[in-house]
Predict the 3D structure of the following.
Amino acid sequence: MNTADDLGNPGPDFIFGYGRINGRKAILPIEQNTFAVDSVQNSTVNMHTITVPAGTGRLKVLVYWHDYPAAVNASVALVNNLDIAVTDPSSAVFNPWILDFTPNSSNLNANAVRGIDMRNNHEQVTIDNPAAGNYTVSVSGTAVPQGPQKYFLAWYFEPATELVMIYPNGSEGFVPAETETIRWDAFGNSGNFSLDYSTDGGSSWSTITSGVSATQRYYNWTVPVALSGMCKVRVTRGADNDVSDANFSIIDVPANISVQWACPDSLMLTWNAVGGATAYDIFMLGNTYMDSIGTTVADSFVVYNLNNLTNTYWFSVRAKGAQNAIGRRAIAIEKLPGAACPVQVDAAVSVVNSPGGNFNSCMSTSALQVSIGLDNPGLTAITNIPVYYSLNNGTPVSETYIGTIQPFGSATYTFTATVNVSTPGINTIKAWAVYPSDGNVVNDTSSAIVNISTFPAVTPPWTEDFESFALCGTTSNCDSTVCGMINGLTNLANNEQDDIDWRTSEGSTPSTQTGPGTDFLPGSTTGNYLYLEASGGCDGKTALLYTPCIDLVNFPAAVLSFAYHMYGGNMGDLYVDVYSGGSWTNGIFSMTGDQGNQWTQVQVPLSTYAGQIITLRFRGVTGNGYASDMAIDAISITDPSAVAEQNSTATFSVYPNPGNGIYNLQVSGLNKSAVMANVFDVTGRKIRSSGFGIVSGTLQTAIDLSVFENGLYYLELTAGETKTTIKLEKVD
């Protein structure tokens, strides 16, 4: 308390107490023996002498005692009341600081004043710019009914010219381009600070910044891109300065530490080489600490005398460089029990990169490329590797990877021969390697699933508002939630073809300040929409949603319409891509960033793809934080030009047309026919639906569109086997 850095009102206050703990200052009274332990009886006084040195900017004296417990519900909690006073060499007496505890905001927020404290078991006296000499501290047992009372007395001399570099102070390992907070102590609030750094032990200096406020004691420094073990930082105010007590280092931290292989009694660690590093120290967790177990100049290290079958281990690495640079230790990695011991010769197929995943029936799958990942987990280089693939366990295709893969290296190979996947449903692509003297055949084979959708192509008008979809979870678990789609829509596989799924939801998303509160169509808290859950560290993740195949052969002016909601301070990106002619065209629509707390409906012309069968892909990418819950709703494909009034055996008439929204409908010539009337807007969204049951003769009714905006609508009438569509125009 006595050495804390004052915050808020001068001296102690009810908000900050004595201020912020200063660890460096707190240890000084112990090191300098500027404290006393004593006891006092009722109505007795103890005297202590303090010698204040010249050049002291502030003397701080504090007494503390562990009070006897008060009776339950006592009006005053203090039992033993001690009082402190300090007398200077000129006999001036200084009482401790006290606060006004009257229960109103004005009194409670007032500055401390000197007085007699009858409420607290700690009292502090401070004297600014004290004269050098002997000071007398009296500790009085004013009221000690439970005595004697043991107390602790501490005093502290703040130098008038104090300026001390706190951090960095030596032996730290800084990383180029990272931000480090430089900290220092200083007495008083007059005179700005400047900061410099050196990479040669203080022989030369470079400026970090100048003009740092006199009230500030820290600065966020972007570490320069340098490599040295002789770095220091200097803080200066006027004629005073202080420098880091010892050198610190600037050198990068090893990245991507991993266990390359693990035998029952040993393992190999590997990591990315650090630029300028001359050696690396390797650490393993012992009983208490990360113990150094070796040093190497390579970017790998073999650890022996382990029990990998049953034990768990933690490992880390730090880089060393020129001028005795010693870097920061990397975050440790965990090695769980288990062994996978390398052999001399081992050729592995680690993955089938392509093809894989879902293909709509309209996508070209007659000549898909087969690409695989090849690994060499063995101890010997392998060259010219025979590789194979087959479709659904059919006749293998054989080729050879020409080249050499070094031990623990990898490569990618794309077969010259393509594969024709035409069978609807699940298909399996299997790939494998057959290498002479391969000592581990377990890892030779990998496979991928190709799913050819059997959902039929849709034609305009086609609408999907997700109201028939089952709701998915909203837990912040990123890729762990798998959300199934219906009606020909497909979420791609997480961690294989994308990162996360579009989720079906209703109402508000779990996070505040992001996501919609209702859906777009029908616009209620119980209406469904699709959204991306960005919480739980799920930032920068991509979600891919395929539509079914869309047949535009007879639709020359088709239009895509959908609504998006992109509200949130960390909002990411939304794209619509189109598959046609055997390839994807990205970004026929795109939107980035926060678009406000509202649904926005857009229309995207598809006339470029007239006469084709296409698939659309909604590609959402979450932003850099949780406030990135984007949503989509009301996807539709329409072609107004393809809507024509049709002839039928029944007689249909609508009047007035154009009209102000109330249209008289007459259907004549009905013979026990079921009559249905549906109204669509130009985006293909159904806005009215009416059924009139079984009718004979003539039906007369009204179609009411008065609540809708002026414009063009389409009335679809069904009478038994007869169906017709009539354009309705609403005007003022």
In short: The longest helix spans residues 23-31. The CA atoms of residues 353 and 371 lie 5 Å apart. Residues 643-648 have pLDDT under 50 and may be disordered. The helical segments are 23-31, 105-108.
